[in-house]
## 1
Amino acid sequence: MPAPVTTSNYDALIVVSFGGPEGMNEVIPFLENVLRGKNVPRERMLAVARHYELFNGVSPINAQNRQLIASLQHEFAANGPHLPIYFGNRNWHPLLPDTLRQMRNDGVRKALAFVTSAYSSYSSCRQYLENIEAARASIADAPQVDKIRAFYNHPEFIRANAEQIEAVLAEVPEPQREYLHVVFTAHSIPHSMAASCDYAKQLQEAARLVFLQLGDGKAAPSGYSLAYQSRSGSPAQPWLEPDISDHLKTLKVAGITDVVVAPIGFVSDHIEVLYDLDHEAQEVAKQLGINMRRARTAGSHPAFVKMVRELVLERMDQTMQRRFQGNGGIRPDFCAPGCCEFN
């Protein structure tokens, strides 16, 4: 696809993500950033820190974002648009204020932000908008930053996730595939947060669309479901369910013994994917006698890279057709007042 005629004056792209530590000495400061202003007991924070110890204090999220940026730079150089790409995080280095300051010093005046979350909710969308505006407010003459739309139903996001699952299915003997169940997972959120957004509905639609692309006749899995992971709130507060570990027990009772878990609620294989799925859920599966395999996230899959470029181009050329799959339509470029609010 050739680069379109530019009808806006965006002069940079910034990849905005959650951030993660890259060594044990960074784990506690990182978690303190994440939990600042939240009523979370220090004992709970230290328990989460022990999850990082299993991986030497290194979350893969920064490395995977750098890999995504490198792939995007290659794609932009080959096919346009010719924009510099920056990287800024909500919770750890490189932090948003530092990146925006560098962008200002480089002469950037108006940038697009690709946030590494496909869905609409307070924590996956509006909070990033607040983070960006807070960072801009801390810097004199900060560049304008416009967030790219939610992309949960973009055809290339669906394709990237489907192909990641297909790569795992290829390891399963074909006669077993028709008895195999796919469990899609996403980060749980409180019911009170879910009530103000389309998060759960979007996840259900993404799961349906990805599943429809799997297999060919007999080689297709038998069914799918959606479960949640990484709950972190008070036990007294209702969160989206079922939890993945509880759901595996339900599947076992139903006679299912082969499962592929696909974390479509995440873009990268960070600690919550590694610990909650590869460690905790896998241990539950072994105890139940379930053969559990885990698909990779979209990461820097070629289709995902293609999607990011397309989302940038559509904002630079308002005449460009905007693609989506399924029944959810296209999310607007700018959130309406009060959208996805949460206190």
## 2
Amino acid sequence: MARLFSRFPNVRTGLRRGGGVYLVLAVVVFGIIGFLLFRQHSSGPREAAAGPPSGDTQPAGNVGEPTPRLAAETEAHGDLLASLTSNTESAAVPTPPEPTAVTELPVPAPNPGNAQVDAAIAEVMALMRSRPSEVIEARDRLNKLLPMPMTPPQRQTIQSEMAKLANDWLFGPAAFPGDTLCDTYTVKSGDLLEIIGRRHKVPYETLMKINNIPRPQLLQAGRAIKVFKGPFHAKVCRSTFTLDLYLQDTYVRTFKVGLGKSGYETPTGLWRVRENGKLIKPTWTDPDSGRVYKANDPDYPLGSRWIALDGVSGAAKDRTGFAIHGTKDPEQIGTAGSRGCIRMYNGDAILLYNLLFPLYSQVEVFD
């Protein structure tokens, strides 16, 4: 301050003359000069702290690794600039990754058959509740559903209902009006049950049973009897060990069966009932041991009936020695334990024996 007054003597004199006014003016002037000098001094470091030109880009490498130019500036300006640079880089918003293409999984096509089957079953059930006598219409409507694609429970429901209906339209004593599979026949003089059965392609034994005729000789002329319009057929599924019985193309009932064991599998394909091949407890020779079994042997293995089959097509073509028969081992039904024959419970074998007609009745075996 003394140096300033020596350089500007007039100021000092003015202060003495003007008193406090000049003192205030002097302070203001000195303040302005000091502010200008401070601003000029501080502008250099602020420019030096500026980042690299926009043309300098950071090369690929580890994130946070400084470029050579940035390293030099960090050295010049000390730890503070390095800290700021580090904080700036760590706070940078990461570039979002490219969206991954979403692979759309195929949506299973709806199975209209299932819904249609459910609706049709419900309609038939409603029909039976409202009009119980419409057995034939209910049977035919359910039978038309069986070739459609459906779930196993749906198929089981249809077959179960049709088996119940068969107790009336097939195994009952009377033929229903409008039934194309069963009819009423008036016995003529000289008619024989065997001839009537052959004419309709069904065994006469089933006509005796359904019409409650104890012996064929007791058939009376003028009597109306129920007859079936055959033939009956069977379809055997190896994977489910089942035999489905049909009258012509109409489902009747399902039976559990036993089939050939490994190495003796029941051949697939089409078979037919052999002429003169239906026998009651025939003498049988075991091909493995050579032992001959007779009907009265306590361990006779063939059960109550034997229905011989001839191979027609597929793997069954020209095969012989196979049959549908009963068994002395009912626990093997539903398993693969035979030498290729189709085993049934003895009561089921008798029923099938009374329905399949030689040369006309076919047995299809499939997987």
## 3
Amino acid sequence: MRDEQRVVFALAGSQALMQTSSVLLMTVGGLAGATLAPTKVMATLPIATIALGTALATIPAALIMGRFGRKPGFMLGAFLGACGGLLAGVSMLIGSFTLLCVGTTLVGAYQGFGQFYRFAAAEAASDEFRSRAISLVMTGGIVAALVGPHLGALTRNLLPGVYAGSFFGVTVLCAAAIVALAMTRLPGPAPAASDGEPPRPFGVIARQPKFIAAVTGAAVGYAVMVTVMTATPLSMVEHDHGVGTAATVIQWHVLGMFVPSFFTGGLIKRFGVTPLMLLGVGILLTHVLIAISGIAFLHYVSALVLLGLGWNLLYIGGSTLLTETYHPSERAKVQAFNDFMIVGVVAAGSFSAGALNEAFGWRGLNLFAVPFLAAAALVIAMVQARAHRAARLA
């Protein structure tokens, strides 16, 4: 096995542990919040603070890894996640909603570091292997899909404080990630310059149409996915579906997110990145149509599978497109801005999920995504049109 493949598979394992923590929290976080929150509107706040923690950690994570390398940064992130799981578990034992939100914020910071796994894979891979490397790292989420929801259901009553066992399980997963990362050779700090040229001003990079399309597509896809996924367990329980049924839907959703990763990189290489991103937008719009058509189990599960698939194409496509917009010496600031924008809109979506579900219901929450998806499609289509014009001129 080549060195680049070893790194990619190790990062996929780390991704699996991080995503399992994430899916576990997504499964029980809103329900745990509902048991402690002073109002229903605040029930999804523990999940929203995950996104907040990710946003707060994104830029520091990029700077730390740009200076000291990927491994120290990833291990620090996993340590923060372990601390967050402990605090959240204790919060359920003592009944503290504030401490629960602090704990989930720290777990979010772990994700702020871990979201750079895909870029670490891209840096370790050759140009030909890059899109597939990003895609393969994302397959770690398949483990999360199979384990996360059921782990949340199995551990929620393990201790006297309901859901405390689930949060302590996050600490165990983070500790395993620290051990795995310690045994992996990862890319070092970014070079100071590329080909003898100094880094360009960020404004020059950000004005590139490819950069705008990459950030917009990934951010909109992620925000729509998280907003809907956050509200799904609450909506299902409100419509007389059990917690176990909601966990099953989340499991199928996460499979929809990550199983396509086996093929996304190859499809991007064959058909191009912008066509795949536009297909992702179309799939998310199809999700909306199914979601607003009914509240039976089949409506929820089929819509959530499509929600995951659309996210996969937009997120991996956006990440791949972004790598075409910067030199190695510019990667830290560009990746930091990209992921900060993504988690910023994700945080907004997470914070609004409970309120949107309470105010407008399941159908209204899904319809809210349509104008954002239309805007993303327009930006991506413009980049594709420019590429076609350039190809004709060539």
